[in-house]
Amino acid sequence: MDKAIKLKVRKELDARQQLNIIKLKGSLISKGYTEIIHILDQDEDFHINSFETPSETNNEVQEFIKAFITKEDLTDTVALFK
After folding, report:
1. Can you give the pTM of this predicted structure?
2. DSSP codes joined into one string, 20-74
3. Exposed/middle/buried for residue 58 (C-beta within 10 Å: 0-12, 13-18, 19+)
4. Residue 12 gets which letter from DSSP?
5. Whole-angstrom Cα distance, residue 51 to residue 5?
6. Partner of 81 for a Cys bridge, out of 3, 8, 59, 64, CB 3.0 to 4.6 A?
7. How confident is the model at residue 2, as a pLDDT?
8. CA 38, 48, 71, 13 torsion-angle sign
9. What are the CA-CA distances from residue 3 to residues 7, 23, 28 (Å)?
């Protein structure tokens, strides 16, 4: 069964943050975790990016996202959304 993963992404980003968010999304797709990422407005400050991934890779994907956020210093920019 597929499991939805949601990311809360700040709308106001500088150029470095924008590039890193694009890299994160591209990595999720290129690693085969998902084929498409949906983007919805949450409010005037945040987007919600969501995608489905197979249940067996759910923990791996979440760990990848957390590591990417830490490595690229995006803790104020993007977070896993529950």
Report:
1. 0.90
2. HHHHHHHHHHHTTS-S--EEEE-SSSEEEEEEEEEGGGHHHHHHHHHHHHHHTT-
3. middle
4. S
5. 6
6. 8
7. 62
8. positive
9. 13, 22, 14
Residue type, 50: S
Sheet with 2-10, side-by-side order of all strands = 38-41, 46-54, 2-10, 78-81
Give the pair of three-digit tokens for residue 50. 């969501």
Kindly state the tokens that stand for 41: 């407005």
- Which amino acid would we find at residue 29? I
Please give the DSSP secondary-structure letter assigned to residue 75: T
Q: Which residue has the tokens 């791996």?
A: 60
